Amino acid sequence: MPLLLTLIGILTLVLLVAFVRLDTFISFVLVSLGIGLASGMSVQEVGKSIQTGIGGTLGDLVLIIGFGAMLGRIVAESGAARRITDVLIQLFGIKHIRWGLALAGFVVGIPLFYNAGFIIVVPLIFTIAASSRLPLLSVAVPMLSALSVAHGYLPPHPSPSAVAAQLNANIGQTLLYGLIVAIPAIVIAGPIFGKTLVNLKVTPDKDLFDTGDVPTAKPSFTEASGQRLPGTGISFFVALLPVLLLTTFGPLKGALPDTSPLKTIVTLLAEPYIGMLLSVLTAMYALGIRRGQSMKAITKDMEEAVKAIAPILLVIAGAGALKQIFTDSGTSKYIGSLLADASIPPLVLAWGIAAFIRVCVGSATVAGLTTSGIIAPLIQSQTIKPELMVLAIGSGSLMFSHINDGGFWLFKEYFNLTIMQTIRTWSVMETIVSIVGLLGVLALNLVV
């Protein structure tokens, strides 16, 4: 019965989100209510479970995602993202431009959420394609594949951060392993796959392509005031500071003895939300105040960034409620006992469940968070590193984006493609990212 209720719940969630088009948060709450009551929980127990799930899931995750959004906005608005991209493109030259774009997309994609990153880099893609005379899609795919990988694999992006929190995975280790797995995924789905698209002719909007008049974020204060873009060193340093802090102080905390006078400081700096806070403060000064922007303007930008992530936080909250219902109703324990005896390797199983939900629902975030609630018992019953499980789920959540995914339509409309062209390019790229990500996780599982 618990397994049947779970299947009905997932199918109902798919129906509500993908076909009824009901708000995702409301859909999660309704499905949580239904599964809880059908499992024999009282109304009071269901209500308490939902509240506990929402509060427990958000917790310090609000800080990580909130600070991440603020950092991304400052990096974008200051012109640092543009500086990073320009430098990498100049470094690689026209001959190896696809590799430069892939690296630029990855560096920019670490602090920026996917949609914001997409809007920032699209004008650059059009400009580079026009100046280099390279086919547009062969230039676009390397950069956008890197953005997609960062979105699906790496904290502080919402889905991997939330899945890591639900599975009690170490954020720093997840980021470190994610960087390792990301390299082959970007290489294959980006420059290598992008090169196969050189003969695919597309006719984007002439106004967009010829003039570069692509809808984008509001002009940065540097551009508006005629000031120069930030320097190369400070742009890279601020964008990569969360990576440096999360991957340095996490391992260092475990290496220091408890008697060390540095233990308290290192332990504090190893907290993901502290690392993100320091990164935001650094960005505010180095990319804002130091370059003449007022604190009022910086604060306004950060407020807008937080507003933009509110819907994402609600989705995460709803997924937390569903996970808690699975736990309190005994469904997770029952499913865990079944999955523990399954012949499918746990990492492959997690990837497959996430991929299935992704194809049905379209949202990578919903796919990742729903899967983590189902697969959580495996972390206790088997010796699987939770950090690798996060990456397996993240890879699966990117599988075959198609017409029910907003990213699919964003790509289609900006590049003026037919649906079949979009499937041949965007959907295939996302599928490559997903499959190569799984293979990378399985390979990493053999050595860590």
Give an overview of the whole structure.
With 448 residues, the chain is mainly alpha-helical. The chain has a domain at 57-200 and 230-311. The protein is 78% helix and 0% strand. The protein contains 22 helices and no strands. The chain has helices spanning 2-19, 24-38, 43-58, 61-77, 80-92, 97-109, 114-132, 136-153, 158-166, 171-195, 206-211, 221-225, 232-255, 263-270, 272-288, 295-328, 331-340, 346-361, 364-381, 386-396, 406-414, 419-445. 53% of the residues are buried.
Structural class, by secondary structure, is mainly alpha
The end-to-end span amounts to 37 Å
Residue-averaged pLDDT: 87
Shape: globular
| Low-pLDDT ranges | 210-226
% residues in beta strands: under 5%
Helix content: over 70%
Report the C-alpha radius of gyration, rounded. 22 Å
Number of E-type strands = 0
Biggest sheet, open or closed, and with what strands and sense?
A: none
Number of helices, counting only DSSP H or I runs of 4 residues or more: 22
Task: List the secondary-structure elements in sequence, H or E.
Answer: HHHHHHHHHHHHHHHHHHHHHH
Main location: membrane
Pfam families: GntP_permease
Family: Belongs to the GntP permease family.
Subcellular location: Cell membrane
